[in-house]
Structure formats: C-alpha cells, structure tokens
Amino acid sequence: MAAKRIFIAGHEGMVGSAIVRQLQQEKGVELVTRTRRELDLVSQADVTTFFQQEKIDQVYLAAAKVGGIYANNEYPAEFIYQNLMIETNIIHQAYVGGVKKLLFLGSSCIYPKLAKQPMQESELLTGILESTNVPYAIAKIAGIKLCESYNRQYGVDYRSVMPTNLYGKNDNFHPENSHVIPAMMRRFHEAKLAGDQEVTVWGTGKPMREFLHVDDMAAASVFVMNLDNAMYQAHTEPMLSHINVGTGIDCTIRELAETMAKVVGFEGKLIFDGSKPDGTPRKLMEVTRLKRLGWSAGTSLEAGLERTYEWFVNAAESLRS
Q: Is 254 inside any structural domain?
C-alpha cells in the first residue's frame, strides 16, 4: 500500500515543525515540505503549480504570518493580506488537486474581546474583536469559513482547530515581534546574564491567559485529522465545525512572570508597566468538545517552560559557536 503523502504548509515554523516531529512517529506516511524559498504560499501561481505536480493526500495548514501586539499594530496590512492569500491559495488548490482531508490551524483571537469565559466554539462572530489584532483575526475567521464552505459545496473533509496561546521549540524570540512567553523568556534570560536587579513586564499583570505547549498542539492536530468522520461530525456542526484546543487552565500574566523567573533563574524584582496595553482581559478556551472526542493536554505550564528554556539556551549557544 502506497504511503500517505502529507503536505505540512509552514513546516519551518513552531507549530509546523512540531507537527512534522509528531508525524515522523507515524507509519505509512510520506511528508512533503517546502521552504519559503521553494514555494511562495502567497503566490496563487506557485501554489497552483505545486498541487498540480504533487499528489497530496492530506494537508496541515500551519503556515501563517504571526506576531504579538506590537507586530499586529505595526503591520496590519501585511497580516490580513498574507494570511488571506495563504489560506485561500492552499484551500482552493487542495480542492482542485483532489485533496480530501485538510486541517486548518487558526487562533483563539477569532473570538470577541469580551467573549463569555471560557470561550466556547459558539462564541464566534458574537461580538467585537480585540482591536490590536483585528486583521489577523479576520483572516483566521475567513479560513474557518473557507473550510466550512468547501465542505458544504464540494463534499471534502476540511477541518479547523483553534489553539490557545502556543509556545515551545522554534518559537519566535524577537525582542519586539514575538508573543508574550518568548518575549518574556528572552528578557528574563538576558537580565539574568547581565545581572540586572529588575525586569519590566508590559501591562498591569492582571490579564489572564491560557498557554499550550506546541508538542501538545501537534498531537491534538494529528488526533483531530485522524478522527473518524462520523465521530467528528457528531461533535461539530456544518456551520460551527472548528474545535478549540487548549488546556482549559489559565493564569494571570503576573503568575506567568513569576513562573518564568523561577524557570529562568532570575532573582530580581518584577516591574509591571501599566502604560503598556494589556490586550484582552481574559482568554480561556472551553475545551469540552475536544475532551469528549478523547484528547486532553498533558504538559503543565512549568514543565513546558522548562523544556522551552532548555531549547532556547541551547539554540542561543549554538548561534554563538
């Protein structure tokens, strides 16, 4: 029996590379990957040629332009344009190329700023989005609706998973364009090395956030992709087909900072700068649907941070050598 050819779009990113590691443990699969230099996912012509030339059985759509509050505020046009083009090109050409199964990876930012907590899948499109990442969120919502629409019209099986805040190996540790965990980890690490007496954290420290280790996200993605269709449909609806992925547990940014200081070994004082934006007051995913399907996260926040910090330190040392 021929191996199942699986295309991981965005395999060099944090989530895509974790999915690659997960799928490498599976039998009977042939992984298909392309770097950005080899395949421009924003280009309709390039994506069309790729699917015409490759016989793909499944697609994991993990490719996206991502960033934190600063990046979303500074580059809104890039965020909405590039993400819309990537999703539209891949989903449509996957259908044209005969791909029956696809998994689209979204984001918890699709939910309204003041969504009921924890956020159920049904909260989608029930209120105003958080202003700092509207372009990205709109693009991700469009991806969900693309999958639902192609399922309805063409009878394919394109599924969507909405992860909470992710972190782990291969995250972006840029000092300005990264998410809260990598930005904080780098800041604390550098402060420790410099012998600083204090570290300043953006915001008041009061917002609550949920964090999921990327290896758990990869495991959940493969789990949802491989679910029996009857079971998947029994727990979703035609116009509400996405599934939340998270731990179901959140913490304040202050608690995150305190845990980070412990993991990194920073013993100085924490200063919270209330003049910086806090973002959404709380973001906790309701993960009952996924648990009923049979999957739960297995990595605690502290354990995940320890694994991530170990990788970060080793990666930083390898760059210097």
A: no
